[in-house]
Amino acid sequence: KQWYQRRVAITAGGSCASVTEGLCGVWNGNIADDLFKDSPNDNAEKFKDYDESCPPPPAPYDPCDNIGPLRKAKALAICQKLTEPPFSACNNVVPVGDTNGGFINTCMTEICQCHLDKSCACPEFDMYAEECINSGVDLSYWRDSVDFCPYTCPKGEVYLAEGPVPTPTCLDKNPSKTGTARGCFCPQGHFLQDDQCVEADQCKCLHEGIFYNNGDEIRDEGDCQVCTCGDAGIMSCLEMTCPELNCDGDELISYKDDECCPYCQRDWVEAVNPKTDLKEGQSVVLTCLIHAANVDRKKINWYKDGKRLREDISRDRLSFDLLSLSLSFFFLFFFFFLIIASGISRY
Known about the structure:
Layout: H1 40-47, H2 69-79, H3 102-113, H4 122-134, E1 158-165, E2 179-185, E3 190-193, E4 196-199, E5 205-207, E6 210-212, E7 217-220, E8 225-229, E9 235-239, E10 252-254, E11 263-265, E12 269-272, E13 284-290, E14 300-304, E15 307-309, E16 317-322, H5 327-332, E17 337-341
Helix pairs in contact: 2-3
């Protein structure tokens, strides 16, 4: 078992405070004195104790040992690019290591695992460049000097050493800049949309959670507006113009919740009659019901035979109780009954 590649965690109770030692540290509340020479490796080396039950670990696996000395030398030659310009300007600031450790060793491991594919060294070169940049040595454009590590940006994007973070998008063309980063970005004057860089006049408009293309027209009945998607993804809106109504005398000017313009409504009053057969002398309730949903109930007046009714009404409903019904009167009832809605208005 390659136990040296695994981690071991030990959980101890509070009664162990100030009495631990060795790899566990001294647990005195000061984490600065838990490691010998402030190094995990030096700490482990100091307290190692091998016996027949705990033999020394084997040497770490090195893929370069399996490819032969000539191929190993080629791997070293590739990785020694770290000691040449432009990397050499940083060697005194960030050590590159050698075949036994550091960036050179890690680079060789990658190259040997990739069967001497040079491009496998590029991530290690980039990590070294990042360390140098953080240490004050600018190696942002190191790829210009390494022909086997070209910039590989998606189509339409360009490499920037100090690209803006966050990146400008069609929805936010001038975001508040929080920092910079190396990587692929949209060229100046282009904006990110659907993972592609587009010019401003190709930006889509976002309206109520839906994207629209440049030139699309949207009728927003709820807000009585006609909106048009213009350049740069900017939506411009104008008030909707409604046609003039000329309703007949038996029609009401009415509105619908999901439509801006009013309309002429017919059949806005319904006689709700019993569905059962009626007989002479039977008591029955006759009801008139208004269906104009947006008619102001306070402006509705009910009349019968020219006289205004004030009882048995609920503004939009009239119930009339007839006792000892005469069939001839039932059929004539609604011919003599007049309903007038005055001062109609929208809520």
